[in-house]
Specification:
Elements: H1 9-19, H2 24-42, E1 43-48, E2 59-63, H3 70-78, E3 85-89, H4 96-104, E4 107-110, H5 117-128, E5 133-135, H6 153-161, E6 164-171, H7 173-176, E7 193-199, H8 214-223
Parallel strand pairs: 1-7, 2-5, 2-6, 3-4, 3-5
Antiparallel strand pairs: 6-7
Helix pairs in contact: 2-4, 5-6
């Protein structure tokens, strides 16, 4: 499948609307090739720390969140190492392009920034069944690029699954797929950008300091991997 090197947002958006009417099995095959095309066309990805990912244990990845491209990029990077299930906000289902992306990314729908017991139960079950889980503990994309205070739902999941937690720092995606200033995801589109991913060493809850909130100790592990300007709340 060949796509024009030069094309504007409206042309691609029309293509996505055309995909929406296709049967799901056909749509997913085409969407997967499209996703790879956009990733390879618009981004240069540098990854460090893949060797830190445990091979056997229950795993929860935790990462900062800058863009709707984060999940797609991380699946692209991790798919040859682990088949990962993501926690994804329900509002991503409301936009055509993000809903098509979600079809490609194994995920659990969650209502962010409030207790979602159903999603948490599903996440615990996923990890207990041996599937790695990927969580963005901030619960939303950072509009400033700086790390926000984490939410503690991931602590509950880790406690109930005896998991190793793998911190991940990602930056550059805020330039790859910038957040629309008006908050309209339907107007977001790819731009060429360098993307950087650093995967830290795994840790357990028992290894964290008992001082302060556990979620803050976890988020500090992400902050330690980020450049200074992205550390935000955890400087």
């Amino acid at each position: 499948m060949v796509f024009p090197i030069k094309g504007d947002f409206l042309v691609y958006k029309y293509l996505f609307y055309s995909l929406a009417v296709l049967p799901k099995t056909i749509r997913k095959k085409i969407s997967k090739r499209l996703a790879r095309y956009f990733i390879q066309k618009y981004s240069v990805i540098e990854v460090k720390g893949l060797e830190n990912i445990p091979k056997e244990e229950n795993i929860i990845f935790i990462a900062n969140h800058l863009s709707n491209a984060d999940g797609l990029i991380m699946q692209y990077v991790l798919e040859k190492v682990k088949e990962v299930v993501f926690l994804a906000g329900v509002k991503l289902q409301d936009e055509l392009i993000t809903s098509l992306i979600l079809e490609l990314v194994p995920h659990i729908k969650i209502h962010p920034n409030k207790p979602d017991r159903k999603a948490l139960r599903e996440a615990i079950e996923v990890v207990k069944n041996g599937n790695p889980l990927f969580v963005f503990p901030e619960g939303t994309r950072s509009r400033t690029g700086e790390l926000l205070k984490g939410h503690s739902g991931v602590v509950l999941i880790a406690r109930n699954t005896n998991s190793l937690i793998v911190p991940v720092a990602i930056w550059g995606t805020e330039k790859l797929l910038p957040i629309n200033a008006e908050g309209k995801m339907s107007k977001e589109w790819f731009m060429r950008a360098d993307v950087y991913i650093k995967i830290g060493k795994p840790f357990s809850l028992t290894s964290l300091s008992e001082e302060g909130e556990i979620i803050d100790s976890m988020m500090l592990r992400i902050a330690q991997l980020l450049p200074e300007k992205y550390k935000g709340y955890y400087k």
